[in-house]
């Protein structure tokens, strides 16, 4: 772990912290995800069947998918990751670990099938270009997939970590959320945009989910100053589940 902590950001490497060797694109984001997913098991849940179906939207290098596969070896997972460089490492990890029944989709989750500009951050914060984004940042065109097209079946867990696209995506598929047992969505609030957390929460409540909200990235004294994390002033983890 000390080796990873001392490495410069956005450096590809490998780690055996999970046991078998996996590939990384950035040690800082890997360690943050490792602590939350594996050490704390923040997203642990109990599936109602031995072969649950997971949608991992914003899969990054695959840590959440690896965690789910360890908990449910018979699970079927569809993992979406649009960044080509990150997708390459995700694909290597899945193949190297011999994980079966994981469909990898090199697309960004969105409200339609299209080709859109994507900001390449290099770790776990790449995103579809947002209104008000810095136009000098490096972008590339990526393919998108419409999430609602994947919600015509029973889904045990829908994870959305799609860096600001979550409100539009949830609203687009709101009438199909009845097929989903659990939703984990990270809400991203951007300085340059109107906050729409009310629309997101309303859509989940209308779909008869119970909600639990935990802070992810917040300002310690928001009346005095608000953080600016790559254009964001707030991030929340929203856990939606059936009572």
Major sheet: 7 strands, mixed
The fraction of residues in strands falls at 25-35%
Give the distance, in angstroms, between the N- and C-terminal Cα atoms: 39 Å
If classified by CATH, what would the architecture be? 3-Layer(aba) Sandwich
- If you consult CATH, what is the topology? Rossmann fold
The chain-level structural class is: alpha/beta
Q: Round the Cα radius of gyration to an integer and report it.
A: 17 Å
CATH class: Alpha Beta
Helical content class: 10-25%
H-E order: HEEHEHEHEEEEEEHEHEE
The protein's oligomeric status is single chain
Query: What is the total tally of β strands?
Result: 13
| Low-confidence regions | none
What is the count of structural domains? 1
- Which superfamily, in CATH terms, is the homologous superfamily? Vaccinia Virus protein VP39
Mean pLDDT: 96
What is the number of helices?
A: 6
Strand order across the biggest sheet?
5-4-3-10-11-13-12
Write up what this structure looks like.
By secondary structure, the chain is α/β, with parallel strands linked by helices. The protein has a single domain (45-241), classed as Vaccinia Virus protein VP39 (Rossmann fold, 3-Layer(aba) Sandwich), CATH 3.40.50. It is 23% helix and 28% strand. It is built from six helices and 13 strands. The chain has helices spanning 2-6, 27-39, 63-71, 84-96, 166-172, 197-206; strands at residues 13-15, 22-24, 53-57, 76-80, 102-105, 108-110, 115-119, 127-128, 139-146, 157-160, 182-190, 210-217, 232-241. It has a seven-stranded mixed sheet with strand order 5-4-3-10-11-13-12. A four-stranded mixed sheet has the order 6-9-7-8. A two-stranded antiparallel ribbon has the order 1-2. Helix 5 packs parallel to helix 6.
């Amino acid at each position: 772990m000390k080796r990873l902590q001392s490495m410069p950001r956005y450096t590809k490497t490998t780690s055996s912290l999970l046991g078998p060797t996996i590939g990384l694109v950035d040690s800082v984001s890997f360690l943050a995800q490792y602590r939350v997913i594996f050490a704390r098991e923040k997203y642990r849940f109990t599936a109602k069947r031995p072969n649950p179906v997971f949608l991992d939207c914003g899969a990054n290098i695959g840590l959440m998918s690896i965690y789910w596969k360890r908990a449910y070896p018979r699970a079927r997972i569809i993992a979406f990751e649009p960044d080509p460089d990150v997708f390459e490492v995700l694909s290597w990890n899945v193949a190297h670990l011999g994980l079966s029944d994981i469909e990898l989709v090199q697309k960004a989750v969105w409200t339609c099938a299209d080709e859109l500009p994507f900001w390449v951050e290099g770790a776990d914060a790449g995103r579809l270009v947002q209104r008000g984004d810095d136009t000098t940042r490096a972008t590339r065109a990526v393919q998108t997939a419409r999430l609602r097209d994947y919600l015509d079946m029973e889904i045990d867990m829908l994870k959305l970590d799609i860096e600001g696209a979550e409100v539009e995506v949830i609203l687009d598929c709101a009438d199909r959320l009845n097929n989903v047992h659990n939703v984990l969505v990270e809400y991203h609030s951007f300085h340059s945009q109107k906050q729409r957390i009310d629309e997101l929460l309303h859509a989940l409540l209308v779909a008869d989910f119970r909600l639990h909200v935990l802070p992810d990235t917040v300002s310690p004294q928001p009346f005095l100053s608000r953080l600016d994390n790559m254009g964001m002033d707030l991030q929340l983890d929203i856990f939606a589940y059936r009572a």
